[in-house]
Amino acid sequence: MILCGITDIFSNFADVLTTNRQYIMRSIPTITKNLLIINVLAFAAYYVLRMQGIDLNDILGLHFFLASDFKIYQLFTYMFMHGGLEHLFFNMFALWMFGCVVERIWGPKKFLFYYIFCGIGAGLVQEVAQYIELYYTLSQQGNIGFTSLISTVWGDPSIAQALNTWTTVGASGAIYAILLAFGMSFPEERIFIFPLPIPIKAKWFIVIYIAIEVFTAFFTTSNVAHFAHLGGMLFGYLLIKYWRRHPENSYFGADSGSPIFEKLRKNWEKHTGKNVGGDKSGNPDWDYNASKKAEEEEIDRILDKIRKNGYASLSKEEKQKLFESSNKK
After folding, report:
1. Which residues pair with 311 in a beta bridge?
2. What residues form DSSP beta bridges with 192?
3. DSSP assignment of 263-329, as one string?
4. pLDDT by residue (tens digit) across 217-254?
5. Lowest mean pLDDT, pick from 47-56, 69-78, 192-201, 210-219
6. Alpha helix (H) ranges present in the chain?
7. How many CB atoms lie within 10 A of CB 64?
8. pTM, whole model, 2 decimals?
9. How many C-beta atoms lie closer than 10 Å to residue 203's C-beta?
């Protein structure tokens, strides 16, 4: 069985998002919480049913598409199954650590779509990698074409049956995509990575993980689905780039529906009496001085920038100013 797992993430968020970490981390957001619960319940069901002689990972895990037990729904269900307690723990640890931050910034709908999209994408990349591996294996035994491989396998039921052992389970195709989303959203934020004694920037953290996955995928042999990890990050990168270039074409493309944005918007409207996104004329009875009006215009500009380009487009100074203003009574 091929495990799609993260077994070496020990990170400390003490210095991450210094201006808003208390709000972000004080509770687990809805989608992250439900994903944690579903994964734990799925593992519990796998463990209980295994004692009854039923292998849930064999049913819901992702089989190679030429194997006799492959079902299309497995591209979705495999990401909720795990091969062991350690496998589950480290995946859920990473989901909690990074998912809380990303979901708070993006909002639940965008985060869930991203998670499922990248999880399925990771499975597809894993299928392609297994197809290439099978081709090279069989081509060494005889003269076989790259495209004729499918008819060869289907013509020999014993091969299709043997391929059922190529089963991928695990959430980390989607979780690696979340790591990428965090790194692309906060590239300059510093995090601690065990065993490094000093914090490194998130963008270098992502580069290191990609390099490790590429090396282990091509130059080592293990039962870990490294290509699924890379596939999740690839689909995540493409989706984030699309959202950034075409925010107006995607329902999920802007961050203005996220809990953070809503909190900022409500606090600012309460503080200033202005309707963000609506009538910005303000209350004519209020006697604003020049500095107050300048501050309001700057915050309006920042909020407009969030609606158009997303929270991640803000500079560090803009984020600081926004959170300082939102905390005013």
Report:
1. none
2. 12
3. HHHHHHHHHH---TTS-TT--TTS---HHHHHHHHHHHHHHHHHHHH-GGGS-HHHHHHHHHHHT--
4. 887 777 788 899 999 999 999 999 999 887 765 555 44
5. 192-201
6. 21-25, 30-50, 56-60, 74-77, 85-106, 108-139, 149-154, 157-162, 172-185, 202-219, 226-245, 259-272, 290-309, 316-326
7. 23
8. 0.71
9. 14
